[in-house]
Amino acid sequence: MALDSAIAVVRRVVRCFIYARISEDREGAHLATERQVEDCEELAAQLSTPTVEYRIVRLFEDNDLSAYTGKPRPDYKAMLDALRNDEADCVLAWHTDRLHRSPVELEEYIDVCGPNGIDTRTVKAGQLDLSTATGRMIARQLGVQARYEVERMIERSKRARDQKVGRGEYAGGPRPFGYEKDGVTPRTLECPDCGRVGPDGFPVRRQCDGCGAVDRFTRNLACEACEAKDTLQVTRVCGDCGTTATFAEGSEAAVVRDAAPAVLSGASLGSLVAAAKTAGLMTSHGKVHRAPNFRSVLLRPRNVGLMQHRGEIVGRADWMPLMDEPTWRSMVAVLEDPARLPSATNARKHLGSNIYVCGVCGATLKASSKPNRRGGGTRPVYRCRDKDCVTRDLPDLDSFVILQLMDRLARENTEDLTAPREEPVNVRALQDEMRSARRMLDDLATALGKGEMDMQEWRAAAGPARKRLAAAEDAMKDAVKRNPAAELIGAEDPEAVWMSEAFDLSRKRATIDYLMKVTVHTARRGRMVGGSYFDAETIEIEWK
């Protein structure tokens, strides 16, 4: 008993830090790092002897952070700071590549541990004695090997992704909003005839947009019948009755599809996000939608079956689109318009601000306030933006404009309000031009790869093809023009539509701006005939 007490007294304690890291936590709940910690704890027990105890004093863990990317690792940095403060004698890790895969990081680690005699023990790579030249050489060799393995893995991953892109296949990643986990099946499919609901039971149907051939495409998505590329059109059909599938009302795919005409009708991103929240839809990561996030979702080329690789559209994808390309490109033009207000914090809050026109100087009116002489406080008004030459009561002016609109919609002859105002865009010709330009770029890339032309020749030839493609894409942005008042004009009760929650302020403003030019002249003083102070005769309405 006395001997056991003596051993306990003289037993030396080695203070140990455990560091665990995993680059990507696919399982969640930190399970992989927990396994590393368990192995390190077992290593500490194996290293302990009757005279030396390897005692774990602190755990550092970076989950889902890669040592290769160079992104900050909070716990790794905290561990280095603690080592500099002499808070530990040993670092335990599962492998050296869990600590660092960058030579720069390794040298910093050596500078911290070497002079202070801090030991490094790993479950898989053994001991690293960084206080000796031999130990530092071994550590550097292990670091070089780890770096090599990572770079090889990245090269293989890029090659595999390039191959998938060449075949129009989904290359992986987080589940895209609007699609199932496989990245290619819209969420949620529905048969309009028999009522079947997906995702299962809706086989893919591939048709050539050029010759009409069905399910005759090579692995590289070239039509076997006409040998054309970039002509793939993917749909899903009901496995029971063969009817082309649509999207279930209120589903993610339907929300993305319906967002395009709403944006073209003047709807704000905020209203679309609010509708998604009302429908109970979350992001693919299970979070609440925000306007910037939803904007990114709508801008994705994958929504129209286009493959994007390294920031560029490279051709057709082998999955069913959520909307047609002309509508998508027109929507993109609206969302990317520099004049469009990007956030709800500075969005217009009044019907006529920046739309109504001053009848004196021609500037637009802005919402403002003015002292109320008939009761104190202030009252909202519209005021000339430039010279303050016209000021009119805001609620009265808005009410008058809405009344004129409803009166106009109540008449029988509303055909002029729905008449197209611009020449239609030849979508088919633009699509053929885009395909031709992409085909030329593909041919030039093949020739460059075979050594049939040098880089200078390729640049000289590819430049005009890229310009042709960009010009066709720009022209396509004008393909779909939507009358924001169409829903009002075709409604049995326009006033009910105007007052509905779906017809938000942004759509009301777009309707006024599209149909009317409201010119506001200087009002006469005093009461008007009938006892009102609002001078309606000085409001000029011109129907566009």
Structural class determined from secondary elements: alpha/beta
Number of strand segments: 17
Cα-based radius of gyration, to the nearest Å:
34 Å
Percent of residues in β-strands: 15-25%
Average pLDDT, rounded to a whole number, is 86
**What helical percentage do the residues reach?**
25-40%
Low-confidence stretches: 25-30
Note the overall shape: extended
The largest sheet is: 5 strands, mixed
Tell me the span between the first and last alpha carbons: 104 Å
* Largest sheet: spatial strand order: 2-1-3-4-5
Helical segment count: 17
What does this structure look like?
The protein is an alpha/beta fold. 40% of the residues lie in helices and 16% in strands. The protein has helices at 2-10, 31-47, 74-84, 96-99, 103-116, 133-166, 252-264, 269-278, 291-298, 325-335, 394-409, 415-418, 427-449, 455-476, 486-489, 494-499, 505-515, and strands at 12-22, 52-63, 90-93, 119-122, 126-128, 189-190, 204-208, 232-236, 246-247, 306-309, 312-316, 357-358, 365-371, 378-384, 391-393, 516-520, 539-543. The chain has a five-stranded mixed β-sheet. It has a three-stranded mixed β-sheet with strand order 12-16-17. α8 (269-278) crosses α9 and α13 runs antiparallel to α14. It is extended and about 105 Å long. The termini are far apart. The model is unreliable at 25-30 (pLDDT under 50).
Quick structural gist:
By secondary structure, the chain is of the alpha/beta class. 40% of the residues lie in helices and 16% in strands.
Considering the chains and any ligands shown, give keywords for the structure.
three-stranded mixed beta sheet, 16% strand, 544 residues
